[in-house]
Amino acid sequence: MPKDNISASVIKRLPRYYRFLGELKKQNVPHISSRQLAESMGLTASQIRHDLNCFGGFGQQGYGYVVSDLHTAIGKIIGVDQFNPTILIGAGNLGKAIASHINFDTKGFTLIGIFDSDENLKGKKIGNFEIMHTDRLQEFCKSQKPVAAVLCIPKSAAADMADTLVEYGIRAFWNFSHYDLKINHSDAIVENVHLGDSIMTLAYGLNNIRK
Ligand code: NAI
Fold first, then answer.
1. How far apart are CA 105 and CA 101, in angstroms?
2. In whole angstroms, how far apart are CA 14 and each of 7, 21, 54, 79?
3. Residues linked to residue 85 through DSSP beta bridges, in sequence order
4. What span, in angstroms and rounded, lies between the C-alpha atoms of 87 and 170?
5. Over the chain, what is the mean pLDDT?
6. Atom in ligand 1 nearest the alpha carbon of residue 157
C-alpha cells in the first residue's frame, strides 16, 4: 500500500507498537502472537493484524511475529534510524525539560541547536548545548540546514517564528506553543502537543466513566 494511504490513526499507533516491542525485546521474548500483543496493548488482534498489514504484514500463521524483527521493521517504517537535524526554539522551563529529557537520537531526529530571543540566556548551557540568540538563526539554518523545529515559545510569538522558520527551510514542527501552525502553513508537517488536552481526557474519564 502506498504510504500516503495509511490512516492517521494507524500511524499514531506505530510508536506504541515500537515501544511495546522494545520492552518485549529487552525481556528476550522471541516471538509473540497478535492475540498476545493485543492483550498486552489493550487492542484487538484483528486491529493489530490490520495495522501491520498496511505495511505488508510480518507474521507467520501459527507462529506469530518475531519480536526483534518486527521491532526493527516498525522502527524503520517510523524512521527512528534517521537523524533529521532539528532545532529547539525557546529555552525556558519547557524547552530546557525537552532538551534535557527527550532522546532525539533514538526517535529519528538529532538536536543540533537551541535558540532563544532573551539576551540573558545567550551562552548559557543546556546539557552540551550553548543557547544561541535568535539573531543567529538565519545564518545557522543556512549552514546547518535543520529540517525540523521544536517550538517552546509563547503562543504570541509563534506565528512570526513559524513564518521565519518555514522561510529558513524548516518543514516539520513539534509544536508546544498552542498556536495553530496550519493556518498559514498548510504544507508543514505539524505535531501539536497539548498536555492540557491529555489531563482533560482524564478529567472526562473521572467525571463520566468511572462514577
Ligand atoms: P518560559 O517563559 O519559561 O519560556 C519561554 C521561552 O521562550 C523564554 O525563554 C523566552 O525568552 C522565549 N521566547 C519568547 N519569545 C521568543 C521568540 N520569539 N523567539 C525565541 N525565544 C522566545 O515558558 P515555558 O514554561 O517554557 O512555556 C513555553 C510555552 O509553552 C508557553 O507558551 C506555554 O504556554 C507552553 N506550554 C505548552 C505546553 C503544552 O502541552 N503544549 C506545556 C507547557 C507549556
1. 12
2. 11, 11, 11, 11
3. 110
4. 9
5. 93
6. 18
**Beta bridge partners of residue 31, listed in sequence order:** 66
Q: Which residue has the cell 486491529?
A: 47
How does pLDDT run across 6-32, given as a tens digit for each residue?
Answer: 899 999 999 999 999 999 999 999 999
CB 194 within 8 A of CB 178: yes
Identify whether the C-beta of residue 92 lies closer than 8 Å to the C-beta of residue 122. Answer: no
What pLDDT is attached to residue 170? 98
DSSP structure string for 77-136: HHTTT--EEEEEE--SHHHHHHHHH--GGGTTEEEEEEEES-GGGTT-EETTEEPEEGGG
Three-class DSSP category at 54: coil
Measured in angstroms, how far is the CA atom of residue 116 from the centroid of ligand 1?
Answer: 10
pLDDT in tens, 31-65: 999 899 999 999 999 999 899 989 887 877 778 89
Ligand 1 contacts (CB < 6 A) are 89-95, 115-118, 134, 152-155, 157, 161, 176-178, 193-196
